[in-house]
Design goal:
elongated, 6 helices, single chain
Length: about 150
């Protein structure tokens, strides 16, 4: 699974180079957010909710991957990449300042989570984890169709 995730991350990092047409832009966006969902939801949240055995090393690896990916979030929403094949709402481009703020908050919260995990201070990890979830929920509530 690590090899697959690493391969997907590498392909995502190179995607903006060739993401010229709408189809490629949507594929890049979906792939990027699928990796985020995997690392945050399928790995970290599953451990927090005791649906997966806690593995501190893997938890820290997920935080590091999310931290590396977070600065690329804005690249997944290039101007005009609206499509029936995407749940991204047009509001993203209509409220660019609000959306940019939401992405900035997401990136900051991911950085805070990585710092908390790196510190090993359990009293910081839980609140930082919840803050990331809150930033995701805010964006989904305001900028994503169900």
């Amino acid at each position: 699974m690590r090899v697959i995730t690493t391969g997907l991350i590498v392909s995502l990092l190179s995607a903006p180079v060739f993401a010229g047409d709408l189809e490629d832009q949507i594929a890049f966006r979906k792939g990027y957010w699928q990796v985020v969902k995997h690392e945050f939801g399928d790995v970290m949240a599953a451990m927090v909710r005791e649906k997966r055995p806690m593995d501190a090393e893997r938890f820290a690896e997920a935080a590091a991957r999310l931290s590396a990916l977070a600065p690329l979030a804005a690249e997944t929403f290039p101007e005009g990449s609206v499509s029936d094949d995407s749940r991204a709402l047009p509001k993203i481009w209509e409220d660019q300042a609000g959306f940019a703020d939401a992405l900035s908050t997401y990136e900051t919260r991911i950085g805070d989570l990585k710092a908390a995990v790196d510190s090993g201070d359990q009293s910081r990890i839980g609140p930082a984890f919840k803050a990331v979830g809150g930033s995701c929920k805010n964006c989904h509530d305001n900028y994503r169709a169900d």
